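Throughout our pipeline, every protein is held as a single compact record rather than as scattered files. The remainder of this section carries one protein's record, kept here as part of the documentation.

===
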Amino acid sequence: MKRISLIIQSIFIIFFFNSYVFAGVSTPTPSTAINKIASSMSHSATNNAQTIANVSSATSSLLNSSKISAGIKATAAKFGLSIDTEAATILASVDTSSSASISQAMSQLKSNIRGRDSDYVPTLDQDTIVYETEWFALQKVGTKAGANPSNMTSFDYATTHDVFTEGVDQMAKGKIMVNFKKRDVWAEMELKLTLVEETNNAAANTQQLISYTSGTATFDEVPVVADEARRISQTWGVTGTGFDSELVDGEWQEHNTMKASATTLQASCCSGETPASWWDSAENRASEYNHDNDGGNQDAWESVYMYGKFTSESEGGIAAGQIAIEAGHHDDNSDEAGFVASIERHEASGSITGKAYEK
């Protein structure tokens, strides 16, 4: 059984493109699947390893952290929310001035929100907290910066520049709105991506501006934790990734990387279904995110895998988040291990203080 967000995964998010590489996509209806997006990132993006902390004794840290526990308890009491003790325990030990510490926490936090009806329209009012960033650069990842949410294994990523243009910043900015009274969370985001030129991609090496507004999610717990994995397709806009979510401790969690191991991709979203899906083939999954379309490898679709996570501990508290983009460049889609080794990743983690909405 897949959670609500996966049921609606085929609905497109609003996406606007200002270049050929992502042109030809009509403006679709907002998806509630992106409700879990963690795309409101820090002003100070740095290249950091997603190492996994040992939190077995972190409960005592939570109890001793009056600043965090007091804010969480006060928000829960004020709005009749439950406390996500696991998330609160993890956040108790986070240094919000350190992107490495935030990245570490992001790899452990589990999403605790669910999508509202697709026709639900949120409103901005005095109870809305707005977390907004300026443009910030995603940093290229090399060694041990990704972590699979199920096995907590860190991965290496390709140091080549065959997908994302070398010397050009991959940029992002975001705005997340959280209304604790109405229990709403939604996002607006922009990306500036510059991809390496390929033979049938005349607009590559030209910066593309991508903008969208999400649907709305709701929550019953604090800290609020939201995550999302999506595909940025040159043909279809933003859709489901083609990968399955991971069942972690009884909860469906998005993959924060395409890698399941150093040599394999994450499982298909449709594995085991009848009739078999196009995504069941590892070769097809590789071709979707492969950017090598020279020579005989013309079935490389040049999509980009995007993952984000966002958490807001309490009303008026500091929010933290992470965003990452990935894609590969290999001359043989059928060589899964070779494609996985070619995957490049850019990411950023950080924190930002929310402000009450003002008209």
Q: What stands out?
A: The chain is about 15% helix and 30% strand. The first helix runs from residue 4 to 7. Residues 1-65, 145-153 have pLDDT under 50 and may be disordered.
